[in-house]
Specification:
By secondary structure, this protein is an all-alpha fold. It contains 11 helices and 3 strands, in the order H-E-H-H-E-H-H-H-E-H-H-H-H-H.
Amino acid sequence: MAWKPLASGYISGVSALMFSTASLLRRMMNSSHVSFVFRGFPALHHQRRLLALPLCGCYAAALVGNGVLVWVVRGVESLHSPMYLLVCALCAVDVLVVSAIVPNTLLALLADWDRISLPGCLTQMFFTHFLSSVESTLLLAMALDRYVAVCRPLRYNELMGSRAWLALLLFTLTRSGTVMATLVALAGSLRFCDSNVIRHCYCDHMALVSLACGDTAPSVAAGLAVIACFVGVDIPLILLSYAKILRVVLRAAPAGEERWKAFHTCGTHLIVMMCFYLVGSVTFLSHNLSMSIPTDVNTFLGLAYILFPATVNPIIYGVRTTEIRNGFFRIFRRKRLVSPAWKRHT
């Protein structure tokens, strides 16, 4: 009868449609986003351009402060000692880490250039976390340097010689490079098939991993391992070093100005270091432990974790350090004496 081929064709068409729909859904489930959009301050999205002013000010202060500090250390020969070279290296790392995220953040706030590719996101993630881990190692090295200078002064040149510098460089590159490369490789192997909106201003590890639709247990475990590797190792060693320094100073220096100076210097350094580690740990663990932190607060903490040390370190290690301050005025006076010479003949 005529209706049989009609029914047969209808059934075949429905079957083909169902098959193609199932194939499309399967392909969609197996697909992964190739680009992401930053939404760091959702509650302030309409006022986001106002956020660019303080961010730009902090970025400029970090560049100028750290740049001047490097210029002074390089220009004064008496500052070419391990401690001040570590300060110089810390300044260079601060400039690199803020430059890895702040320009892109400013473009997102001012020009709505808030999209980034997955390879770009993974690259930014690697350099941000790598440089932050290098900064942690430098802070540890500075604490150990002060410990050797105060508690083992007769062996300072032996313990802080060129061999120690080479060992520090190899240790820093090996630890930070391998750990962060593993972290990024695990994140890069995930599929991102749900949302492509990163609730942050830059590619933070767990902010990206939280968008994955597969098994994220290895990435979460790797994030916790990073905290244990850096915060769990570096903080106890830094605290132990400063505790021993204070004990030696309290025994040697009489109560008065010298003792107060030691307390003030060590206390200031420890406050800056603890802020760096505390804010970094909170931002890193907020997704790992499912901490209910508002997106705007978490984004602010993530920016503070990068910008606060870069802005404050030049003040702590530069303005408040007598040798560096005197070196700056010495170079400034030298420039003033040399540069106006041509004007006297005009």
